C-alpha cells in the first residue's frame, strides 16, 4: 500500500513474475526447514507435522505423504479463498514436496544443537510462510479447513488448528522420545511467533 502524499492510498498488485519468485522462495525455504527438522528428528504442527510423523513411523518419504495429505483441503480452499489461492497453494505444496526429496542429495547436516536448531527452524519456516502468505498462497492443511468451518459454524479457526496440533503432538509423545518432542514444541512456538509478529495483511501489497 502506497500513499501519493495527498492521503490517497494506492494498491500495487504483484506481477506474475513476482508471484512466481515468492512461491519459489517460500517452497524452497520450507523444504530447507523440513530437511533441518527431520535431520534433528523433530516434528512440527499442522499437516506438515503429521506428514513428518508418518514418515518417521512408516519409512515413507515426507514429500509424497505431505502432498497426499493436503489433497482433501483444496476443496475447502476453493470454497473459502477461490481458485487463484488454490492454484498457488497447490504449486507451493508441490514445490515443498518435490524439493524435500531432492535436497538431501545436495544438503547434509552435522551436529545441530537442539535449541539452536529449533529456533532456526522456526525462523526459516516462518519466513517461508510469510512469503507464501504475501503472495496469496499457503501450504494447505488444517488452517484452510479451520477458516471454512469458522464461516460455516462460527467455531474459531484458531481453535481448530490448536486442537489438531494438540493431537499431532500427543501422538508424537506416544511414538517418539519425549526430548525431541519438547524441542519440536519450541520450534513450533518460534514459527508461530514469527507469523504473529510479522503477518499483517493490512500492511501488504497483493
Automatic annotation (TrEMBL):
Its main location: membrane. The chain crosses the membrane at residues 22-42, 48-73, 85-103, 115-133, 181-198. InterPro entries: UPF0750_membrane, YitT. Keywords: Cell membrane, Membrane, Transmembrane, Transmembrane helix. The keyword Signal does not apply. GO terms for cellular component: plasma membrane. It is found in: Cell membrane. It is a multi-pass membrane protein. Coiled coil: none annotated. The keyword Transmembrane helix applies. This is YitT family protein. It comes from Paenirhodobacter populi.
Amino acid at each position: 500500500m502506497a500513499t501519493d502524499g495527498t492521503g490517497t492510498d494506492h494498491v500495487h498488485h504483484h506481477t506474475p513474475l513476482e508471484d512466481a519468485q515468492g512461491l519459489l522462495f517460500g517452497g524452497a525455504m520450507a523444504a530447507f526447514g523440513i530437511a533441518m527438522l527431520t535431520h534433528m528428528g523433530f516434528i512440527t504442527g499442522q499437516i506438515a507435522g503429521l506428514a513428518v510423523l508418518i514418515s518417521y513411523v512408516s519409512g515413507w518419504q515426507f514429500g509424497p505423504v505431505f502432498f497426499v495429505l493436503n489433497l482433501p483441503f483444496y476443496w475447502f480452499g476453493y470454497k473459502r479463498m477461490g481458485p487463484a489461492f488454490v492454484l498457488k497453494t497447490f504449486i507451493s505444496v508441490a514445490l515443498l514436496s518435490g524439493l524435500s526429496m531432492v535436497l538431501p542429495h545436495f544438503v547434509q547436516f552435522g551436529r545441530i544443537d537442539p535449541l539452536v536448531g529449533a529456533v532456526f527452524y522456526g525462523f526459516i519456516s516462518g519466513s517461508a510462510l510469510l512469503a507464501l502468505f504475501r503472495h496469496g498462497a499457503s501450504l494447505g492443511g488444517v488452517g484452510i479447513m479451520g477458516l471454512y468451518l469458522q464461516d460455516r459454524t462460527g467455531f474459531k479457526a484458531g481453535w481448530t488448528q490448536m486442537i489438531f496440533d494438540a493431537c499431532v503432538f500427543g501422538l508424537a509423545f506416544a511414538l517418539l522420545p519425549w526430548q525431541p518432542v519438547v524441542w519440536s514444541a519450541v520450534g513450533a512456538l518460534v514459527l508461530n511467533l514469527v507469523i504473529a509478529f510479522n503477518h499483517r495483511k493490512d500492511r501488504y501489497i497483493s
